[in-house]
Amino acid sequence: MAKHFAAAPGAGIRTGTTVLAAEVRKGLANQLAHPLGHIVTLAISVMMYLGLQYVMGQGDMRDDLLPATLIAIGAYWFLQYSGQVMVADLIEEKRSGTFAAALMSPAPPWVAMCGRLVTATVFALPIAVLASLVPALAVGIEIPWRWSALVPYLLLAANILAFTFLMAAIAIRNPMTGALHSLLTSLVLMLNGAFMPLALYPEWMAAAARLLPTTLAIEAINLVLFEGGSLASVWSGGTLPLLIAHTAVLAALGAWLFRRNRRLAIAEGRVGQY
C-alpha cells in the first residue's frame, strides 16, 4: 500500500502530462487544418492596420505614431487569435458534444484548459509576431529594444491569457460568449492604442481603456521603450502594480467561473450541449 501511494503522485503527473500534450496536439491540429483561412485573415488584418495608419496620418505614414501603434496592434492580434483557440473551439466542441469527453479524463479538469492555454500561446504568438513583422518591414517601422521591456511584455502575455481563460470559462455555459468576446476585442482594438497612442486620448477615454485587457501592459511597454523609463519608475508611477492587479483579477475570476460553470453544467446534464 505504501508503494501504491508513493507511485500515485508520479502516475498522476504522467497522466496530467499526457492529457496536456494530447490537448495541445488536438488544438494545433484543429487550427492548422484550414491554413488558408488564417492566411486570408492575417493579410486582411495587416492591410487594415496599414490603411488605418494612412488615414490617421492624413495621407502619410507618421513615424511618431507607427512604433507605438504597432506594439498595440500586435497585442490585439495575440488576443484575437488566442481567443479563437480557447473560445471558438470550446463553443464548437460544446455544440458537437465532444467537450464532454474531455471531462471523462482521469486528469483534473483544469489540465485540459491549461492545454488550451498552451495551444493558444503556441498558435497565436507566432502569428502576432509575423503580423507585426510584415508592416514593420513594409514601411520601415523601427522599435528600439531594452531588456527591461521583457517584464511588461511577459505581463502582457499573462494578461491576455487570463482574459482568454475568463472568456472560455463563460463559454462553458453560455453559447453567446463568442459575440461577447468579439465585442470586447473590438473595444480593445479601438482603445488600446492600435489607432493612436493612449497619450493622445481624452483622459476619460484613456481611463476607460485601462479597464480593458492589454492597455496597461502596452502603456508600460511604451514607457520603457520610448520614454526611457526604468522598471522602478514604471512601478512607482502605478502602471505595473495596476497591470499585475488587473491580471490577477482576470485570472481569479476566470478560475472561479470555470469551477462554477463546470459544476452547473454537470448538474444540469448539459455538459455536452448548451
From TrEMBL:
Membrane topology: Multi-pass membrane protein
Alphabetized InterPro entries for the sequence: ABC2_TM (IPR013525), Nod_factor_ABC_transporter (IPR051784)
UniProt entry tagged with the keyword Membrane: yes
Gene source species: Glycomyces algeriensis
Coiled coil: none
UniProt main location, coarse: membrane
Domain of life: Bacteria
GO molecular function: ABC-type transporter activity
Cellular component annotations (GO), alphabetically ordered: membrane
Keywords, sorted A to Z: Membrane, Transmembrane, Transmembrane helix
Keyword Transmembrane: yes
Record field: transmembrane: 31-52, 64-81, 117-141, 153-172, 178-200, 238-258
Protein name per Swiss-Prot or TrEMBL: ABC-2 type transporter transmembrane domain-containing protein
ABC-2 type transporter transmembrane domain boundaries: 24-224
Pfam families associated with the record: ABC2_membrane (PF01061)
Compartments where located: Membrane
